[in-house]
Amino acid sequence: FRAAIPRLFDVRAAVLEDPEKLASCRQCILAVHPHGVLSLDHLLTVAGFDEALERALPQSERSALSAGVLFKIPFVRELGLWTGCVDAGRPTADACLRAGLSLSVVPGGEREQLLAQRGPLECLVLRERKGFVKLALRHGVPLVPSYCFGEAQLYDQSRLFMGFRSWVQRTLGVALVLPFGPGGVPGRPFPAPLRHVVGAPLDVPRIPEPSRAEVDEHHARYMAELEKLFARHRESAGYGQVKLELL
């Protein structure tokens, strides 16, 4: 796996803004943005691909929240469980945190995957995605914002049958992606360098039953930190011309 990935994708070493604080967290929720067509960076995170991130937040001490539909597909379910993936439903997430594990999650989910598009504007489905923030508050664990530059630049995506595909995504929780790369070749990625930047943990209080106002407050804090993280690193990651929009 480690030998194959560099042959297919230009994966650069991750940048951790505060590795010491991250390593000192007993638990945390690592939020990975954007989803992109593949969610390749979350896959690499689940697999413990990056050495620096693995030292600070070992894969053996965390689970990855994944779409529930994946656990209904034979073989995919077993592969997911083997790599530490769990259903993204609240009971499972609560159980993981009670067991002392950290979590990783891609808040944009299938909707963001369906909207993924290469270009000068990267869009995150985030403004109404507050479940992971509420989860952090319920357990009093830090939120860790992270952004993978290049994830959204791997593919163009056809808008063909977008109305139908949106209906399938809303109804079944499945994103029917139609990605293509150079020359219009389906599935072939553009040569976009991938740089995962991990921000400092954002501490939140423990509130067993947070109110809507409390969730909104800390969700706004999180979005602000994520936007700052993007602005600080886009030039050095090679995407100075790219802008970020939160939907």
Overview of the structural elements:
By secondary structure, the chain is of the alpha/beta class. The chain contains ten helices and eleven strands. A seven-stranded mixed β-sheet has the order 1-10-7-2-5-3-4, with helices on both faces. A two-stranded parallel ribbon has the order 6-11. Strands 8-9 form a two-stranded antiparallel ribbon. Strand 3, helix 5 and strand 4 form a beta-alpha-beta unit. The radius of gyration is 17 Å and the shape is globular.
Q: How does the overall form come out from the CA principal axes?
A: globular
On the 0-100 scale, what is the average pLDDT?
93
E-strand count: 11
What proportion of the residues is helical, as a percent range? Answer: 25-40%
Order of helices and strands: HEHEHHEHEHEHEHEEHEEHE
Stretches with pLDDT under 50, minimum 5 residues: none
Please report the distance between the alpha carbons of the first and last residues. Answer: 34 Å
Which structural class is indicated by helix and strand composition? alpha/beta
Strand order of the largest sheet: 1-10-7-2-5-3-4
Short description:
With 247 residues, the protein is of the alpha/beta class. Helices cover 37% and strands 17% of the residues. The mean pLDDT is 93.
